[in-house]
Design brief:
about 210 residues; 4-stranded mixed β-sheet; 4 strands
């Protein structure tokens, strides 16, 4: 059966696009959503150990998203086929997330939730923040002591993108970091007043479907 461009499934791009007699992905893909399950072939190649991040990030299915490299690595390269991750976020059209590196008040993290499949894990980490820093590298511990924050911004997502939708942000990746911050606040340890985090929002008419922050 002849496939029409509008019927194109993004899974083909995870397998690698050859370009032989086909419409280029950047043209025909504008007609389809991109969900986590659509990237399964790409994730399988990563799991087999045959795909470095440098090769992963330039796959046509991912260049279509135009996500910042740090978000790509933390969300998709590290966790893109994790069962609970897919269960909680599998319904989102990844093309419709706009990423911004934002400055978030420490107080906002004290009650910030994560996905339903891992509910309670941030609070679990918060019960022993010193331990969860000690099992990381010496540099991580030193950064917390000197700067009162994490070395690498966690990934947050606007709950308006979820189903059912809600208000505010939730932690998509970086639950340990969020728990350490929450626990240090509770224990009176050094915590900065504001923290960097990647925040994914629904696009607005002015920003379009992708983030300008790379």
């Amino acid at each position: 059966m002849t496939q029409r461009p509008g019927d194109l499934n993004v899974k083909r791009f995870g397998d690698g696009w050859t370009g032989a007699g086909e419409t280029p992905p950047e043209i025909c893909c504008t007609q389809v959503d991109v969900k986590l399950t659509d990237l399964s072939p790409l994730m399988a190649r990563r799991e087999d150990g045959g795909l470095s991040f440098d090769r992963f990030r330039v796959d046509p299915a991912l260049t279509l998203l135009q996500w910042p490299d740090d978000v790509l690595r933390q969300c998709l390269f590290d966790h893109g086929d994790n069962a609970s991750f897919v269960r909680d976020y599998g319904g989102i059209d990844l093309r419709k997330i706009t990423w911004r590196l934002e400055i978030i008040p420490a107080a906002d993290f004290t009650e910030m939730p994560t996905g339903a499949s891992d509910a309670g894990c941030i609070e679990s980490f918060a019960e022993n923040p010193v331990y969860w820093v000690e099992v990381r590298s010496v540099e991580v511990g030193r950064h917390w002591e000197e700067h009162g924050t994490w070395m690498r911004p966690p990934i947050l997502i606007d709950r308006l993108l979820l189903a059912p939708s809600n208000s505010g942000l939730q932690v998509l990746e970086g639950r340990t970091r969020g728990g350490v911050l929450r626990g240090r606040l509770r224990d009176g340890l050094h915590v900065a007043s504001h923290h960097q985090a990647w925040a994914g929002h629904a696009p607005t008419a002015s920003t379009g479907p992708h983030s300008a922050a790379k």
